[in-house]
Every structure is written in structure tokens, then in C-alpha cells.
Amino acid sequence: MNPRKPSVTAQDVARRAGVSRAVVSRALSNNGSISPDARARVLRAAEELGYQVNFLARG
């Protein structure tokens, strides 16, 4: 049996990008005003970590 790898969370992306969890949310939903630099850092961190949106966790 293979052990499950823990999922990458938005908080993990925030830590890697050096931004808040709220900025990650805005960047990934393309909603809200954040700087182009912050958006690029979030998207790069999400890609590096292999982040995938968990649609069941969305409110």
C-alpha cells in the first residue's frame, strides 16, 4: 500500500510566495486587486508545489 502524499494547501503556496492566504485566494481566482508581482509569485509558487484547487473545500 502506498502512503498518501499530503495535499498542498493555499497556506503552503502563501508561505512559498511570501504573501498572505488572502492574496493567494485573489490571485488564483483572478479576483480583486493585487500587484502583478504578487500574482506572478503566487502562480509560480503554486506551479512549483503542484497546487490544485480542491473544489470540495471551496465555500
From TrEMBL:
Source domain of life: Bacteria
Record PANTHER family: HTH-TYPE TRANSCRIPTIONAL REPRESSOR PURR-RELATED, LACI-RELATED TRANSCRIPTIONAL REPRESSOR
Keywords, ordered alphabetically: DNA-binding, Transcription, Transcription regulation
Keyword match DNA-binding: yes
InterPro entries: HTH_LacI, Lambda_DNA-bd_dom_sf
A Pfam family that the UniProt record links to this protein: LacI
Gene3D superfamilies referenced in this protein's UniProt entry, alphabetically: lambda repressor-like DNA-binding domains
Transcription regulation listed as a keyword: yes
Organism: Klebsiella pneumoniae
PROSITE patterns membership: HTH_LACI_2
GO molecular function: DNA-binding transcription factor activity; transcription cis-regulatory region binding
Protein name as annotated: LacI family transcriptional regulator
